[in-house]
Amino acid sequence: MENNTVKVGLVGFGTIGGGVADILLNKKEEIRRKTGKAIELVKICDKDTASDRGVQIPDGILTDDLSEIINSPLDIVIELIGGLEPARTFVLNFLKAGKDVVTANKALVANHGPELFDEARRLGRTIAFEASVCGGIPILSSIASSLQANTIKSIDAICNGTSNFILSQMEGKGADYDGAVKEAQRLGYAEANPSMDVDGTDAVQKLTIMAQLAFGVKTDWKSIPRTGIDIVKSLDIRFARKLGKRIRLLATAKRVSGGVELKVSPTLVPETSPLAKVCDAFNAVQIIGDFVGPVFYQGLGAGRKPTASAVCSDVIDTALGRTRITFDALNLWGPGRESVPAVDPNQTSETAYLRLKVEDHPGVLAKTTGILGQHGVSISSLLQEADDDSSGANLIILTHEAPSGSLAAAIEEINSSSFVLEKTVKMSVRD
Question: How many domains does the chain have?
Answer without folding.
Answer: 3
